[in-house]
Amino acid sequence: MELYDSTIREILGRIEANSPRAWPFEAGKAWPDNGVNELVLTRDAAFELGGGSLPASNCTCVTTDGSLVPEDRITLVGPDLGAIRADSPFARIVLLHVNSISGDDQEAFRTIRDMEFVKYHVFPQGYMMRISPENGREQVRVGKQAVKRGISFRNIGDSFIKKYKENKLIDHVHIIFATGDRALCRELADTGKKVDAITMTLNHIMDGLSTDCSICAFKEVCDEIEGMKELHFKKGSGPMQL
Ligand code: SF4
Q1: Ligand 1: centre distance to CA 66 (Å)
Q2: Which of 216, 220, 223 to mutate to test the pocket of ligand 1 (most atoms within 8 A of CB)?
Q3: Lowest mean pLDDT, pick from 5-14, 25-34, 202-211
Q4: Which residue ranges form the domains of the chain, and what is each CATH number?
């Protein structure tokens, strides 16, 4: 089953159409990490990604199809951190290629959730992330000192990928940043909501709740995403095939 694959294809198509820049993963280029979230005060900030009411989102998609994430890569659409002069729209997307996940459904689902929680364990110096699980927003306050020292999305991407690769189930990571283009970032935020809806539906399924589709709040997602209904009705009959 490939629950997120159609969404991944949609994201890649949208990004490719916007003249992205890309870099391979280099662990040595990861930005210094504080180990804990650093407070960047407003007076010390150069700008905020996704500040105020600007689009600001993140999402994580997992696949077992290696052709969708064939290598570790950082992609950027829009200006890099050193070229941004004011608050900017923002989106961050992570695509993960995982090797086979064994165990029962619950264990497989927990493994996927652990992968998503990496975003709470990356603390680049002068790059203060504020992530809201309720509305899917991710705002980042970037410090003036960090900009002076040359922080870039390539460095931040390397930091994330380095953390993800501590998990041996992850083969490849593609991290995508988008800035500057409000319409594109809004579209990517909408895609992030769709990804959240898939994950919430998975939650519902793994909690073993109602299997009556006619009254289920997740019917719209299950009608659209291939394999979701099969997962619910087969739940518990064997290892979950992502
Ligand atoms: S398969 Fe049916 S009951 Fe299960 S989550 Fe989807 S719509 Fe709801």
Answers
A1: 28
A2: 216
A3: 202-211
A4: 5-234 (3.30.1650.10)
pLDDT digits (tens, 9 = 90+) for 56-95: 999 999 888 999 999 999 999 999 999 999 999 999 999 9
How many CB atoms are located within 10 Å of the residue 100 CB? 10
| Span of 62-71, 77-86, 190-199, 211-220 with lowest mean pLDDT | 211-220
What is the 144 CA–ligand 1 centroid distance (Å)? Answer: 48
Atom of ligand 1 nearest to the CA of 205: 5
Tell whether ligand 1 has an atom less than 6 A from the beta carbon of residue 211: yes
Q: Answer whether 203 contacts ligand 1 (Cβ < 6 A).
A: no
- For the record, the structure tokens of 148 come out as 């002076």
Q: What is the C-alpha separation between 53 and 235, in angstroms, rounded?
A: 40
Read off the pTM: 0.89
Pick from 241, 206, 204, 240: nearest CA to 221: 204
The single-letter code of the amino acid at 7 is T
How many of the other CB atoms lie within 10 Å of CB of 133? 8
Would you say the C-alpha torsion 222, 223, 224, 226 has a positive or negative sign? Answer: positive
